[in-house]
Amino acid sequence: MIDLYKNIFLLFLLLPFYTLQSQRPIMELYNTDNGLPQNSVKDIIKDKYGFIWLTTENGMVRYDGVNFLVYKNFPLNSQRFTYFYGSPKKDSIFTNGDYGNTILLHEKKPVIFKNNKNNKIFISHNNTDYLLYCSNYNYGAAPGINYYMNLQHGMYYIKENSLVYKPSQTQKKETLAINAFYNNIIRIFVIDESLFHLDFKNQKVNQIEKGKIVNHYNIPLLTDHKSKIFWSQINNQVFIINENTLYTCHYKNGQLKISKLIQMNGHIKKDNLSSIYYDEFYKKLYLGSSTEGLQIISFPEFMTSKNYASKSPSVFYSTLPYDSSSVITPLGEIYNRNGFVKNYHFKDVISFFMGYDEKGNIIVRKEGDAIMYKKENSYTKTTSIPIKDFFLTDFFFDENKYYALIVKPKKNNTNQYYGILAIYNGKSFSSIYKKIIFNDEPTKFIFLDPNNILVGTIKGLYKVSLKTNKIYNLTIKNDLSIRNIIKSKNGHFWITTIGKGFYLLRDNRLIKMPYDINGNISSSHTILEDANGFFWIPTNNGLYKILEYQLLKYADDQQYKVNYYCYSKDSGFNTNEFNGGGNVSGNKLKNGEFVIPSLNGLVFFNPLKVKSYYPKNIYLERALIDNREVYFKNNLYVDQKSDHAEIFIDVPYYANPDNVTIEAKLNDTSQKKWQFIGKDRKFYISNLGYGNYTFMVRILVNDEGKFIYKKINIIIPPYFYQTLWFKVLAITTLLLVLNFLIRWRISFLKKKNYELEGIINLRTKNLSDTVEKLEATKIQLHNEIEQQKKLIGTISHDITTPIKFIALTAKEVLENKDFSQHRAEKILTSIYKSSDQLYNFTITLKEYADIYSHRSDTTESYSLYKLIEEKIILFNPIADNNNTAIINNVDTYLCTRISKNILAAILHNLLDNSVKYTKNGTITIHSTIENENIILLITDTGIGMDEQKIEYYTRLQDNIESEKLLLQKYGMGLHLVLQLLQMIESKIVFQKNTKQGTSFKLILTNRKND
């Protein structure tokens, strides 16, 4: 009775899982024929990088979803490995080889691990030996062998009738009296640091934490003697096989739960299983056999439904939604995701057309006729549609009218057809309101807007105006055989074709969408849009998915990269070829499922639950150079003598490999543009010259088009004769040789030149001497002439004033004969002083001559005050006669080394001008020092210079070499002053006084006493 209740309980426990059988798992088998080094798969694990690892009796194997990479050349006596232990999260996975040699799996490759103090298989405790227990896949208990388990919080020591717990931090021990073995099989496993003991005697499962029993579970499946437990501590997974069914055991939210995973049929031999691993992300089950290799079982999210009892081919075209979870075919058959449901037995119909009218009646097509199955009679009675010799290709209705596409044979040729867009009065086929004729066979139509209809034919796409009945061809350039016209939720119109892909209609212009990498999208049948904006596109070779906004981006910019996601037979289809010849090529059911017809069944799926699998990472660390595999990190070194090199692009990915989009490029080469990498995931390098290259790889990682990038440096060392130092040495040697030859040639030519020069020099010596003498004479004569000109001009200018004064005085004496004694004395005194001035001036003629004959401005330091006093004495008589006073306010201690002769001449001319034009006034001379320059300010109260003269002399001073001299207009005096100032690198500033007179500001460049 107890066994009866137990079996009934198991039956109710398993009932919820039987529906999973309808998924029909997909199985793949790998053995020594297709990748494995040996057919005994001892253990299976997934590392932190996403690679699947296997241990066999002939090495270790890394599996990335496509390729098996075998490691079996370890320097060990045997390449036989058993189970894994350690921590994938910490990237420290261990396994043991012969004689206790430990292999560490780290950073995606196995190496021999020397320091295995903390990873021992055997330990000794209290004079008792214990064997590590972390998996029950590969061995059972043997007489006299005890086991230990290493958890984070402590250690368990397992004996046949006891379990000893020792915490990590204390010496205290907890001992439980339990029966740890049953038929030499250890009945203990761990999930999330909780230990579970199977108590067969009391038919319960004990939960033990830190050495104490904390809970009990009544799970008959675990305590059934027929159940076989598979447990792996490193995978944290427990599996149960009972009655050809595989279950998983989970500990979640404080509860130990069992769930069915798969019904094991005859293809899976449970007696030979040695290891199990379930990948929850990819929904794949890995079964390791002790004799038959590795079996990978996939649980597809698509369901293919058909009538397995029927002998007829399960080829489907048009279907209609029947209820929220099923569809009906033109034959009257009803299918849901679990298969055939019911049959209304529609007879003699064609599979390419069916439709609902406004009352829910089903319209189907026969040869040259169409009939209607009545909904009110549960589709058992039919009514003929009153139009003969035609067949419908598409049909829809709005609130007021029926619209139909009708194909009729041409009168002259029954193999050719023309089309009619028929619009009926009301919602019946009794009276046609409007006909629009097409020369070609129409296939599909849809409202573009309230006034226009889009019509597709076997030759193109047309827009029909319902107001004018005009037809506009939207495919002028190329013929397109239109298969379907779809309006998306965003109001965009998409057109699928036969053999030429699909298009976006925008502004009456068709924009072709790009193909997938294999070109399968060229035969797209229809587009089904889900709630997330994805388009699902069935083709003759697979089902494709793409976001609408990516296609719209491509329409705006043809450089935008579009990536389609592909689902094929390994996703759960019976065939990759879908059908699109009917008027309805896919259905959306109210329960959210999509239904697509194929050549072998109807494919049911929920688009919001179907997962897109993309790679998470990409690794560049292996290369094959001249058939020798090398590992690298950031830099790959390749010799120039290498014939070719292959860079492996490792990608752990366990779904459809067609969805792995890898592109690579090698900068600074002909391969500098992104190139698609095939399924072998290799990049080939050949005939590269020496240098440093950057190799970049990118891989698509989501539906939105995001890529991740990796790059490495490829370094090809140069030969010694290609190195920089060799080139420098070679060029230096060449230059030295060239220099030697040039120097030898120059020496030879010099010797010849010396001989010729001796002859020429002998013949031309006298001529050269003569020319030099003539040239010196010419210069000397030129200088003397210039000196004489300037001396004459100076003399003429400087003696004019005293002579003129004497003449005027004499004239006054002659004109006024009656003089008083005082007047006579004054006149004679003036004549005397002027004569004396003239006499003194003649004495200074030597100074003028010295100015031009000795132009050096080096002189001994002298007092500027005394020099000015000498000039005042010279001009005082004339100033007195004009009732003018000359005042010397120059610093008595101010000394300079400016050429005394030149400065004397300058002061002479300036005082001469001031005395000449100043009467009844004063002439004042001041001195200051500015930035080591001597500033002499000569200010008079005379009539002053007019603005024209000031402007002239200022301009002349800045352009004395090129400015034209106006000697006749302005005289010689100030012209001479400007020339003399130029000789001593000084300047003069002319300024008209505010009240009366003129100021002469001399800016004298003083010489230091060096």
Automatic annotation (TrEMBL):
Annotated ranges, domain Histidine kinase = 794-1008
Tell me the keywords, alphabetical order.
Coiled coil, Kinase, Membrane, Phosphoprotein, Transferase, Transmembrane, Transmembrane helix
Care to name a GO molecular-function term for this sequence? phosphorelay sensor kinase activity
Question: Does this entry carry the keyword Phosphoprotein?
Answer: yes
Reaction catalysed by this enzyme: ATP + protein L-histidine = ADP + protein N-phospho-L-histidine
| CDD domains for the chain | HisKA
Note the coiled coil stretches, chain numbering.
764-791
Protein name, per record? histidine kinase
| PROSITE patterns, A to Z | HIS_KIN (PS50109)
Record keyword Kinase present = yes
Membrane-spanning parts: 719-742
Q: What's its top-level EC category?
A: transferase
The protein's matches in SUPFAM superfamilies, at most eight in alphabetical order, are given as: ATPase domain of HSP90 chaperone/DNA topoisomerase II/histidine kinase, Homodimeric domain of signal transducing histidine kinase, Tricorn protease domain 2
Organism source for this protein?
Answer: Chryseobacterium soli
Q: Name the Pfam families for this protein.
A: HATPase_c, Reg_prop
EC number from the UniProt entry: 2.7.13.3
Stored SMART domains: HATPase_c
* Top-rank lineage group of the source organism: Bacteria
